[in-house]
Specification:
The structure holds two protein chains of two kinds.
Chain A (H helix, E strand, L loop, with lengths): L32 E4 L5 E6 L5 E8 L13 H8 L11 H8 L3 E6 L4 E8 L3 H13 L5 H20 L2 H13 L13 H6 L2 H11 L5 E7 L3 H11 L23 E7 L6 E8 L9 H13 L5 H9 L3 E9 L6 E9 L5 H17 L4 H18 L3 H13 L4 H12 L3 H11 L5 E8 L2
Parallel strand pairs in A: 2-6, 7-11
Antiparallel strand pairs in A: 1-2, 3-5, 3-6, 4-5, 8-10, 8-11, 9-10
Chain B lengths: L2 H10 L5 H7 L3 E3 L6 E6 L5 E8 L13 H7 L10 H10 L3 E6 L4 E8 L3 H13 L5 H18 L3 H14 L12 H6 L2 H11 L6 E6 L3 H12 L20 E6 L6 E7 L8 H13 L5 H9 L6 E7 L4 E8 L5 H18 L3 H13 L8 H13 L6 H10 L3 H11 L6 E6 L8 E3 L2
Parallel strand pairs in B: 2-6, 7-11, 7-12
Antiparallel strand pairs in B: 1-2, 3-5, 3-6, 4-5, 8-10, 8-11, 9-10
Classes of the chains: A alpha+beta, B alpha+beta.
Amino acid sequence: MRFAGAGRAALLAATMIFCGAATPPPPSPPKAFQFALQNGMQVLVVPDHRAPVVTQMLWFRVGGDDDPPGLSGLAHFFEHMMFRGTKQYPGGQFALIVARNGGETNAFTTHDYTAFYEQIAKDRLPLMMRLEADRMANLDLSDNNVRTERNVVMEERRMRVDNDPQSLMSEQLAAALYLSHPYGRPVIGWPDDIRRIGRVEARDFYLHHYAPNNATLVIVGDVTPDEVRPMAEAEFGKVPARELLPRAEYAQPARMGETRLNVSRPDVKVPVFIRMYRVPSYAEATAGEAESLDVFAQLLGGDATATLYRELVVKKKLAIDAGASYDGYTRDDSSFSVYAVPRPGVSLEALEHAVDGVIAGLFSREAAPADLERAKTQLIASATYRRDNQYSLASVYGQAISIGLTVNDVEQWPDRIRAVTAESVRKAAIKDLNKIEAVSGNLRPGK
Amino acid sequence: MNVRKILASCVIALAAFAPQFARAVDVKVVPAAKGVEVWFVEDHTVPVVTMSASIPAGSVYDPRGKEGLAAMAAALMDEGAGKMNSDAYHTALGNKAIQLSASPSRDYTVVRVVTLAENAKEAFQLLGLAIARPRFDPDAIQRIRAQMIESIKQEEQDPPTVAGKAFSRLFFANHPYAHPVGGDIDTLSAITQNDLRQFAHAHWVRGGMKVAVSGDIDEATLKTLLGAAFDALPATRPAPPPNVARLGAPGVHVVPMPVPQPTIEFGLPGILRADKDFIPAYVANYILGGGGFSSQLMKEVREKRGLTYGIDTDLNTYSKAGVFVGQVATKKESVKQTIDVIRQVMSNFVDKGASTAELTDAKTYLTGSFPLAFDSNTGIAAQLNAFQRVGLAPDYIVKRNDMIEAVTHDDIKRVAKRLFNPAKMTIVVAGGITDAKAPAKSAP
């Protein structure tokens, strides 16, 4: 493979990664090509020529973690401000131009990163790059824009959180779980903090975090690296690097005791038990540990053949539903969640006891070979299913790179899941599903 | 490729995209499975096969007193078939990472299968078994019924769902479109194993079934697998649902809920898919409220006034009715203002129609974005099956963008006047109106 612009002094030496040469199953994994611009922006290209369409995703290494004290929600608020216009494309022009060209656009923010994307006809990619490069450097942050957008965000918070008792409890569980670490602050922000966000705070945030040297561009679709490289250089290459505010490191002190949240509210119609364990993420875990947690989550609560469902829903009939999940793609400690909804007449206490029984059972003996194999098969297949869609394919790469993993980590993940054993699953579960490192919540109807 | 050329081409070539695309999606009509209409796109890029099949098993066929029957049957589709009980069936799917789901809606139940290409044979075998030889074991019925009832209770705290259900009850009155697809606690409790068996026998049938498949499989293999899956089904077809007498219950209806942010659902009689003005109406809806950040409603309600996170309108087309419907959520102090703004925007649209820029922008978006739905096997199967359900032919994919290009300002004015009458709106508020001066009635 030869890049059109290769050899130019303007570009850093390109790291090209062709992956998965020797994996056993025949389907060839997508080839991701990676290079960097001189201003420090990372670029990743994953060709997929099925439709004449491309997805551009721009990932910034900034998120809720970087909200200053007393201003939780600023990173998310800023994601909104990125759609409020620049000198060259004022007002809502960004979204209008994308739509006028037959494209879709949106954005999302987590504690670790903020990402913006457009999906559009391939011949509009240079225009999309020009628009993204423009708003990376030239945003218009007038008072009026800030005030209106703050109201929009308050409505978003009411919709996603305040209207929904389960979301409210999850927000408080995270606050209790992560102690003083910013993962305990909601990404959307506490209402009092959102109200404090003003033009000055927004401007500071922009200048310190929105720069090419803090971003990864992911392009998936009907393009080649040869095409993307000169375009990216022409549009993003002219945005100067900025001095970034270094991301703060936060202590993650060991917890001293099991923590519990009992919530009764009149707006709750269905009781639920939720427990969140603080566990290592892919970015921190020892070799194979996070993969083992993924397999354990699938075995414990991934589907209707998982142990929680079989034992509590099908056999003992204590629960309406029960499941587990592990979100390992974070920079710092992530969470492993277990939930169960009781059958009418079953107390949350009895249900929790039964959940603990199921977990203890999986600690005491290794998973049956057929169950382990099924869990692994489903996880490995999920990697193939994600490749069917530009959005999910671009997300997998962008997310991994934004939390400090590499293209290799993404592409070798199926092999590493294959290598997980019943013993490694049991060991990781015993080590990481520690009730002292957990917060349990009971949500029930009441006053 | 030359950089300057790329930049020049992107500024000018706004509409050059559609024709190129029409050739890119090669839809074959496959004569498979006796009488079933199968559309197929072969693509070997990703080793995945997806299928979307629509069967005439929507909630419109629920018997009175057994509302939710279609949905319960759908929820039981993967709960045991042939010799396999629920756990054995789920294990068989899981062992091969086969995804099978059945989603009930008003006219159809849509069955989706996603499988790795190497497991396509097992996937279609399991699908055939589920649809032709469902067990409806008492244990599974009990479990699924309990889940559906708890989910209805859960929805009672969710303003968008409460608003949507109340809207349909008021809007469709006595027609079977009025009840929630998922039924009610009482009616779910009344459903028996025998009801489920009879329903499946009458509605999980080859007559009227529409199938779309996309992915890594060849036509001959697909024919064999579809035949094996569906040939054993009855070729009968259920009698069509009753016609709709009247639509709408003009006025503001409040369903009280203790929430900080009510949801407003508003709507009017819409347009049938077969109506010759459907495409102009589709474009008009985009300009008024369907076009995200480009729509008049989003500009006025969100961008200018910050009243909401989002407002969206749609033209829902059922086999017997069309509905223009929109949804917006805002804090209870601004419900009244939001309704006023919506009414003003609609009435202004009826008076003035669309500006030249709005119509042009709508066309370039609607034509240019059409291919985005075809970027994945899952997207292709879903999109083709949606066209099949409303009775379109495969060549619609080629013709569609020309039909949109042909829409004129007069067309927009005509359909706007026909459809968007703010005085006739049925408006449901799930939550409360604290500044209400509007004449509020209670919803049933």
